[in-house]
Amino acid sequence: MCATPGIRPSAVGRSPRSSACRRSCGGAGDGRGLPRGAPWTAPAPCAALGPWTSGGASTRRALAFARQLADDSGLHATFHQADIKAFLAGELEPQPFDVAFGSYGCLPWIDDLPGFFSALRARLAPGGRVVVVEIHPLAWSFDARFQLADPYFAPGRLFSQPVGDYVGAAAGALSPSGHLPGAAPDNPHPAHAFQHTVADIVTALLDAGLELEALREWPYVNGCRVHDGLVPLEGRRFTTPPGVPSLPLMLGLAARSSGRPAVSRPGYAPPRS
Questions:
Q1: Who has the most CB within 10 Å: 64, 67, 107, 162?
Q2: What integer pLDDT is reported at residue 267 of this predicted model?
Q3: Domain definitions of the chain by residue range
Q4: Fold classification of 47-175+187-257 (topology level)
Q5: DSSP characters for 169-223?
């Protein structure tokens, strides 16, 4: 099974939490729940890899594009537009999944991480894996001048800001097929997200009965210019400029479903608006 992509709420050039990543979930299913073939893009709260490849998409155009890409690739895939909680409850795809993959903005949309990882584990086949590559939560605490601007620890706080033109800010890093420069119109509609620390994420994952296999941090971010102060690297990446110490900008983890029982922590309170 797979969790997916999202975008951190922000407004490019107006907020420390600016130009968050494009929602994209790479991979396709080969009938055994293993990644294969060309990646697909699904701007949404959830995507799944399994006997079928299932991805949430926020627009009909994105769904149509994903389906056409799957057809052109000769891959058997189904796509769903759904609320993440309904999807994890098995209302659309009752089959278990071998792999759950979430990328670049999946977790900030989730208010209840323990509930999310518990539901995710319940949808995995025995020995199934969870793989997440995310924007590092510390990246949202700095502004474009690399000054502390927002708290790293923000339990109970809801961040509500418009999503800016993160594709335009990446200047081609998110649009390798071609980039057209120019200012995008302002987005007046706020999006809502939550700040989860590394400890929040790992603890919720372990408490769900998942076994952590790998945890990594990187001093760059793929494709997305999270802050205007970041400079490009080869391979469509962005990092801190010369003279600025390196910072963790991307976080990766891999875990596997285990026989260990889940742990309930009565003291946990999900963020509130």
A1: 107
A2: 52
A3: 47-175+187-257
A4: Rossmann fold (3.40.50)
A5: HTTTTT-TT----SPPPP---EEEEE---HHHHHHHHHHTTEEEEEEEEESEEES
